[in-house]
Amino acid sequence: MLKRASKLPSLRLLLLVVNLIILAIPISLLYLFRIYENELIRQTESELISQAALVASMYQKQVLVLGGPNYGLTHWNAPFEPDSHLRLVPPKLDRSSSVIHPQPLTPSASSYDPDPIASQAAENLAPIINEATLTTLSTIYLLDFHGLIVSKGPGYGLSLERNEEVAKALEGQYHSLLRARQIESSSSLSSASRDTPFRVFAAMPVFNGQRLAGVVLLSRTPRELMKALYQERFNLALAGALVLTLMVSISLLASLLIISPVKRLAREARQVADDPSITLPDKAPWELVVVREVAELRSSVSFMAERLSRRSDYLKAFASGVSHEFKTPLTSIKGAMELLGEHGRDMDPNVFSKFSDNIRIDLERLERLVGRLLSLAKAEAIKPTGAEKTDAAGLVEALGKRLSANQGEFKVILNSNQPFDIAIDKDVLETVLINLFDNSRESGATEVKVTLQRNLDEACIEVEDNGPGLSAEAQEKIFTPFYTTRKNRGGTGLGLNLARTLLTPYQGKLDFVGPPAVFKITVPTTKG
Fold it and tell me: Chain-centre distance of CA 441, in angstroms?
């Protein structure tokens, strides 16, 4: 289940995606507002270009009629070919990159007089321009080829050539820019007044063939962003509802993928606490996607439940065995003590001695049982450091010499005298081997053969004796706690169980691999 969980999306990734989406929503809105503001500016410039082109065309027709084809200044920078069919002027202003210039300079006096043909043309067009401005809300000035105002009204005959847009137009180039404007008072959102703090200025040169005939200067304030948004309030409300729906959907998705599975797992964990035999399913039928961490947590809880169930069964069996093993000698001791108490003074000395020996034997058995149980408790508390290293060959050789010296005929034969390092504590390995050697010796064996083998990152220690071997029943129950074939000789039935428990913290195993009596210890080799 853990391997499957590694292929699932992680909780960290899911939370990152959710947070990025939540972060992207306001950033996207801000970006869209900036784009929309730029669009308002470019929309205004596009409208001014269209109006300027129309006015410039009418202006050119007037001066052509009034001044003929040779009217104007010969210009080196005429932007269009005489026979060109397209005269495209794209908008170029951008709120983020265009500089907002100061307010336009006031018209100034000039050494030139207003051109009479341009003045007459402006006067002819004045009714049309005045009527159009009522709808377009643009300010329109007609200038002659020197940059002097020829539209009748304030500033007539004064020069605007000091302003950048006019100077560029006099050079034969269309030019537009943003200029700051002063706002005296704010108007309501529904008002037609515009409170934008800048104004779009566009200057379009007027050509009579290849000659500069004049300039059309227009200006207009673009719509304010807030007023434009107010006018689109119904669409914005719909967009807000969609964003809110998206946020709620993200929250529900996060709840579905994280919160609900965790809550369900908490409920199942409480059920497992009441009944460890419960098996947890991989996921609920309605869970289409499972987060990796939740799957790993579920797998861990399921594994823990399985371990608890096995542990509970083991403890029940172990408690029953302990109770039985203690009850037998205690009953025997109790019976003997009662007989001695009632008839001890009149009892035959030989009979009294026999009862006393029985009590001593039972007490020694109880003492051995308590000792084994304490050893088991200590074995289960072992915590390896990872730095353990033992030369198994050297240890077997040393144990063989010790047993030969103490037990006479009993021999330990090692098939190799080369160093054989394994990752286990020396005392632990020694206890396991002594248990196996003692079992072999007490079963009637006179010789034990120890074979050392290495397989990738595991080491195998095989112990085979020349004794009578084990019966079929003994082979099945040999690792069962308190099972022993030598109970009448003081066996506790905990030796092999203790050996297995000692090996477990080091990822080691002890198995019976075949008759007559062959045991195999498998432990990891040392790192490197």
Answer: 60
